[in-house]
Amino acid sequence: MSKIKFFLNESMPLEMHKVRVVQKLNLIPIEDRKKALDEGGYNTFLLRNRDVFLDMLTDSGTNAMSDRQVAAMLAADDAYAGSETFYRLEKVLQFFFGMKFFLPAHQGRACENIISKTFVKPGDIIPMNYHFTTTKAHIELNGGKVEEIFIDEALKVTSDCPFKGDIDINKLHKLIKEVGVERIPFLRIELGTNLIGGQPVSLENIIKVAKICHEHKIMVVTDASLLADNIYFNKEREEFCKNLSLHEIILKIAAATDIMYFSARKLGCARGGGICVRDVELFNKMKELVPLYEGFLTYGGMSVREMEAMAIGLEETLDLELVNQGPQFIAGFGKKLMEQGVPIVTPTGGLGCHLDARRFIPHVKSEEYPAGALAAAIYLVSGIRGMERGTLSETRNPDGSEHPAGVELVRLALPRRVFTMSQISYSVDRIAWLFKNRDLIKGLKFVDEPKVLRFFLGRLAPIDDWATKLMKKFREDFGNSL
Ligand code: F0G
């Protein structure tokens, strides 16, 4: 057994916690699931949780809290201004990132709003490894444009590249030369790159990229929402980090960075967010927007209870036995799916297991949203709610045509410490059945398409009523079973 693994056997990670509070789950019959899909416009965001068996939509705000986090919530100090809770959290963050200043915000996208409003002007270009939906929306809202300069391996769904989140250094040099530093206020690095399958960024790449940026006086902004998974992979996969503690890795990432921001719905297993900086001038530039959009500087729209939980959650992020619960479960899930021939993104990353819809249902065109159709089909046959991460999550081109996504994925997020291995086995069983019957799945078409972030609220319908056909086949094979 390697030093940082806790495995029962090769495909069975071992939980280093016990469950002391439980929530009863509902598994409704497939006919009711079909009705829920019809009512929710075949968009898994629009399902009601009471109709969902295993909620793998996201790990955002749904990770299980530790007993220490829940206990800390009781000792929160309620005050509009000057709450002791804020000072406790600030102190933890100063230690965590080695940065002096902290601006609280109600969640990750609120940090993106503050950063974009402060630093992005019309015509600016923001280079990054890969965009996140809300990040891109805020940059564009302020007149900027996202330029992705990921390594070529990033979009290869089957790969053995350990750090698909890395930035391509040559593309960075080329972009700076072409665009000029005046139009690049900052470069953004997203740890645990979400939309390409929770893929990590190497510490070595972060340091190299930051050096180039700083030589050109370009700021480096790191999105640390998925930091916990990223540092696990730094330690597991990167020679450079083998002898570093998790905290030493975090401090090296922060040292290369000017602004760290995060969604505490992910990092710290609570609900909230924040921006950390070392430089007082940067702090002063952003701080006036906090009372305007979030709340007073000592709570930033967060509940003090969540802030206490976050402080403990951040401390716990330095514990390898807790941090490994994400990536190791995802690796186990992925291995079982691959044994059934189900196409997934490899290597498995953090956040969740990512099914490759382009290989799962190659007969569905990008314009008919294969990942959206697959997410709906998975819910229909299993009650599992995943999330579309493909063309549906993109924005149309200015001429109204579709902008096919680089990758067409269904994310089955595994909130930390929430699901058991038997629930994972159930998921593998149903998805393997669906894979055998994949020819029955067709695409989706929009019935109601919002202009901004359409994947959240858009309503769709199945082409050729494939959901009814799939339901019939399910009944033939599963009899009366749910
Ligand atoms: N950055 C990254 C990398 C994220 O994954 C998210 C959220 C945000 C920023 C925005 O943070 O939700 O607190 O406003 N990701 C969630 C997800 C929504 O399901 O992956 P937020």
Could you describe the 3D structure shown?
A 5-stranded mixed sheet has the order 4-10-9-8-7, with helices on both faces. A 3-stranded antiparallel sheet has the order 11-14-13. A two-stranded antiparallel ribbon has the order 1-2. It has 2 domains: 4-59 and 322-478, Aspartate Aminotransferase, domain 1, CATH 3.90.1150.10; 67-321, Type I PLP-dependent aspartate aminotransferase-like (Major domain) (Aspartate Aminotransferase, domain 2). The radius of gyration is 22 Å and the shape is globular. The protein is an alpha/beta fold. It contains 19 helices and 16 strands. It has helices at 30-39, 67-74, 84-97, 108-119, 133-141, 169-179, 203-215, 227-237, 246-255, 280-287, 289-293, 304-316, 320-323, 325-339, 357-360, 370-382, 421-436, 454-457, 466-478; strands spanning 7-9, 12-13, 54-55, 101-105, 125-128, 145-148, 186-190, 219-223, 259-263, 273-277, 352-356, 384-385, 387-389, 409-413, 444-448, 459-462. Helix 1 runs antiparallel to helix 16. The two termini are 39 Å apart. It binds ligand F0G.
